[in-house]
Amino acid sequence: MKIPSFPPFEEWNRKLLLIAAGCAAAIVVFCCLLVIALSGRTDSDSPTPQATAETAESASSETAEVPNTADLAVQTAAVGTVLPQGTDAGRSYVDETLFIGDSNTARYMMYADETGQAFTSLNNNIGVVSMGAGAITSLKCEKFKGSSTMHTIPEAVAMLKPKRIIICFGTNNLGGSSTDASGFISTYLTGLKAIQSSWPYCDIIVSAIPPLDKQRENTNLTMTQVDAYNAALVKMCEENGFKFLNSAEVLRDSTTGWAKTDYTLSDGVHLSKTAVTAYFNYVRTHAYVTEDRRPQPLGNIPTPDGVPANLITQDPIAVRGAKVPLEFVATNGGTLSGSTSQLVKKGGTASAVTAVPDEGFVFAGWTASTGGSYSSATIQFTMPADANAGGVVLTAHFKADAHEHNYVEMSDTKVAATCLTAGSAKYKCSICGEIIEKDIPALGHDWDGGSQQGDQMVYTCRRCGQTKSETIAHTHNYSQVVSDTPATCTEAEVIVLQCSCGAQTTTNGQQALGHAPATQGDGSIVCSRCGVLLQAAPATPQPTEQPTTPPVEPSTPPVDPPAENTPVPTPDPTPVQPTESPATPVPEATPASDPTVEDGTSVENTSAAGALAPTA
């Protein structure tokens, strides 16, 4: 087949059209690539626009990826770190707990439960608007009545002497999407250890950072960071022996990962009354009940005067701006008509809200969390120029027509008392619907008689099974013989005994035996048992000498000495008659020989007789 030819002009046009189509396609591809590149830029490539009060209503409604870091941390934490669900611990558990934190904690005093009682009071709340974890040890924030001195949180805790604390910081430490929580944890842990050091007798429970709303005023606050910080808090508690209250699980939508609908105010950060009510139900059903470790008696506890208004003037998370949150709530007996959650400029006026009483009730006035009361059922509130980021809560009060209440216990509201915790029950008036809550005192342990285990007496509660041990005075039982030294003639038996605890004692058994005398052949006496000499053998008798009478000297009268040169006459001799004289002792003769003569007359006697012969 022959291909037809085109005229020259038409072929030139055809070529031009092909070139133009190619250029157009290239331009389209380039534009598409440019759009894709621009749309794919990350937050780190361009600065995040700072939300303002004026742009709050049109804040980003981006869909958050459901965070799971905190959930994984909770699931893998050591047993006992994350508080599990249990029975309702009752209102008394809340009342004996000190709540510490930022503006969300301060708002616990602005809301009341269905009985009309505020969730917390000045006596058990230290909530500081715009405060972060790094200021725990340094910011003097709490006052006490009768004193102008300000105290840090650790100092205030030591003065209030609580049984436990639930502490929640972190919202004011947020900014951006960084998941590095090391700096946050370091400062938080320093604060917690300071509290622990100042009052070591309380249990420390760390509450999770609450979730943000996807319509938050400051879009620089992200759930990615909240989730990472909460995961780090779980690990911190696990490593330091604190307890973790995973309250985020009751405040967060598990599908979107953001706060549940109507759980925050218009700024997307501060919790609404609905959220606070859910939070305290969670606190009561995830209680940590232990023995009271505080030294008794507690002594004097000063009366708190609260945290001064506007203590911190800067807003670290930039949600305050020119507008602050305003919330309207109603007590039992009525409802509200109008917008109950608004953002109002400082000095500006909110849209009107009307309090509508139920049948059988009348309106009893408005009260503001900042002070002041209003009598008109319809109110257009003017926001104070010095309002802080915590905003203002207006509460409409109602009272029933005059009648005598007929309270009936509400089903499924009774919390049984346990050994350690008080119970409670709610009662509702059948006429006006007013609800009250009454406490049921704790039962106390019912200890059994105990069983001895070594030097410990172990008691078991018949009601809950808890045990306690007491050291008892040990009574020794010396039943084991360590050594036995038999009795001797002079020493008693010595027995060393030992108790099962290792202690030893010495006692005497058989008394000393005494010697057993035995006469020997030589006449000596020895003990037949021990061989000791009791009596020596008698000595051989010696011969006895006859006593000899000593010679007696003649008795001569004294003569005067002759006179000098005078002759002395010689007297005539006078015969001397022999006289007997007593015998003079003679030294003992030696037994070598017998000095007697054959006729038996001793030589000495003969000599003595000779001595008595007269002398010439």
Describe this structure in words.
19% of the residues lie in helices and 20% in strands. It is of the alpha+beta class. The strands form 8 sheets. A 5-stranded parallel sheet has the order 2-1-4-5-6. A 5-stranded mixed sheet has the order 10-8-15-12-13, with no helix packed on it. The longest helix has 32 residues, at 8-39. It is elongated and about 190 Å long.
Provide tags for this entry:
Rossmann fold; disordered N terminus; alpha+beta; disordered C terminus; five-stranded parallel sheet; five-stranded mixed sheet
Topology:
Layout: H1 8-39, H2 69-76, H3 91-95, E1 97-101, H4 103-106, E2 125-127, E3 143-144, H5 153-160, E4 164-168, H6 182-198, E5 203-207, H7 223-240, E6 243-245, H8 248-251, H9 273-285, E7 304-306, E8 323-330, E9 334-337, E10 341-345, E11 353-357, E12 361-368, E13 373-374, E14 378-379, E15 392-400, E16 407-409, E17 423-429, E18 435-440, E19 451-453, E20 456-460, E21 467-471, E22 480-485, E23 494-498, E24 504-508, E25 517-519, E26 525-527, E27 533-535, H10 603-611
Major β-sheet profile: 5 strands, parallel
Distance between the amino and carboxyl termini: 223 Å
Give the CA-based shape.
elongated
How much of the sequence lies in strands comes to 15-25%
Query: Any idea what the CATH architecture of the largest domain is?
Result: 3-Layer(aba) Sandwich
Strand order of the largest sheet: 2-1-4-5-6
Fraction of residues in H or I helices: 10-25%
Which class best fits the helix and strand makeup?
Answer: alpha+beta
Number of E-type strands: 27
Helical segment count: 10
Taking all residues together, what is the mean pLDDT? 82
> CATH H-level name of the largest domain... which superfamily?
SGNH hydrolase
CATH topology of the largest domain: Rossmann fold
Rounded Rg: 58 Å
Provide the domain count: 4
Low-confidence regions:
1-10, 35-67, 589-593, 595-616
CATH class wording of the largest domain: Alpha Beta
Protein name: SGNH hydrolase-type esterase domain-containing protein
Region (Disordered): 42-66, 539-616
Domain SGNH hydrolase-type esterase: 99-273
Organism: Candidatus Gemmiger excrementigallinarum
